[in-house]
Specification:
Layout lengths: L10 E5 L17 H6 L5 E5 L1 H4 L10 E5 L2 E5 L8 H14 L5 E4 L13 E2 L13 H9 L5 E3 L6 H22 L4 H18 L1 H12 L5 H17 L4 H12 L8 H15 L6 H13 L3 H4 L18
Helix pairs in contact: 3-4, 5-8, 6-7, 6-8, 6-9, 7-8, 9-10, 10-11
Amino acid sequence: MIHVVDKKELTIGISACLVGEKVRFDASNKPSTFCMNELSEHVTYQSFCPEVAIGLPIPRKTIRLIKKDDMITVSQPDGNGDVTDALKAYGKKVASLTKHLSGYIFCAKSPSCGMERVKVYSPEGNSLASTGVGAFAQEIMAANPLLPCEENGRLNDARIRENFVARVYAYKHWQKLVASGLTLHKLTTFHSHYKYTVMSHDLIAYKKLGQLLANNDVALDDKASQYISGLMAALKVIATRKKHANTLSHIQGYFSKHLNQIERKELSEQINAYREGLIPLIAPLTLINHYLLQHPKQYLANQAYLSPYPEQLRLRYAY
């Protein structure tokens, strides 16, 4: 297991209403069960409510994204109380002071915190396409393009939830690596830990990252920058059952000389059953980890794919 991350080390930014703070326009909150009851056991939250931070009262009049010509502003439905500049300025301020964050969870559909698909209105009040981004969230994501970000609503999807948490832990691992002083050896070792993780998400990225590290004409700083950009982009791709099954089959090859015929057949059946949607991912992984205990292989034991985050989160039990 390569991820030794203390709760106090791993900090995630989060919309204040999602952790129970009564800061919404109607003085209510919007607590996320996953965030409050499960993920909170493993991370420290740093909560923000940009609307309160810029001086809006609780309760307050609603605000929305309003599009006029090619410009989108944030104001009350009648166009009064424009807070666009204030929200953007606060977003820039928070972004500059929170480089230590390893992830961010935004409140969906919010004109300040919505990550995507926020409803946009015309000046006359007509609903336009839901293609907006919250003014505060936009600044956070623009300033920290590598930062794993998600919305509370999307986290109800088991695959998206697992993907987000895995990205958070991978990014924290990277942050610790950089803080320790980056060297080519450390970068290469880091990549070796994530080979099967990347394979399960994006095989093309897997090949490109390997080629990047093998290119001696690229300076270390440039190589590191290109590498982490490529890695985080690859991990954002949701892994499918087919890709997971192919990755599991590759891992199975490490045990080909150690397992008897019955054991090989059992593992193959588990992988195929997962591929066909009959069992969750945790089933073949449990068997692989069992064989890894019987037949230790340090390279596999160091793979983030086998232990990407605390097992207590049970994120691979649902799909």
